[in-house]
Amino acid sequence: MAMILAVLYFGLIQLLMIDSSRELGAARRFRARVLAQTMAENGAELAAHDLVNKIPGAIVRVTTEDAWGKATGELRKASDVNFVLEGKGETKGLVVVKESVKITGRVVGGRIYIDYTTH
């Protein structure tokens, strides 16, 4: 009887270990996805520096990298009014995730209006 209980106990422990490793993998993927989205938004923000004063036709590209990953951003200002910001983020680590953001808007009288954003 004790042998059967021991086998069942070790089986239960093994099932718990399998479940916890699955949960750890899901947590790593979620963390990497959130971090990649944040890096993409940071890249777009860096490219948007001094957006109001940029001349039409200007293309600004920025790249930054740190221990968490890489962020790139691009600003395209087609006219005095319309602009497109694009940011891309890529994480480092066990789980590598790439995310991007695209922001379209306009500058009217020194004020920035965002028409739509896609992630």
Describe what this molecule looks like in 3D.
This protein is α+β, with helices and mostly antiparallel strands and 119 residues long. It has one domain. 39% of the residues lie in helices and 38% in strands. The chain has a 5-stranded antiparallel sheet with strand order 1-2-3-4-5. The longest helix has 46 residues, at 2-47. It is rod-shaped. The protein starts with a helix and ends with a strand. The model has no long low-confidence stretch (mean pLDDT 90).
Largest sheet: 5 strands, antiparallel
What order do the helices and strands follow? HEEEEE
Total of helices: 1
Coarse shape: rod-shaped
In total, the number of strands is 5
How large is the radius of gyration?
A: 23 Å
Number of domains: 1
**Content of β-strand:** 35-45%
Task: Please report the distance between the alpha carbons of the first and last residues.
Answer: 58 Å
Question: Which strand order does the major sheet show?
Answer: 1-2-3-4-5
Mean pLDDT: 90
**Percent range of helical residues:** 25-40%
- Spans of 5+ residues with little confidence (pLDDT < 50)? none
Structural class: alpha+beta
Pick out its properties:
5-stranded antiparallel β-sheet, 1 helix, 38% strand
Summarize the structure.
The protein is of the alpha+beta class. The protein contains one helix and five strands.
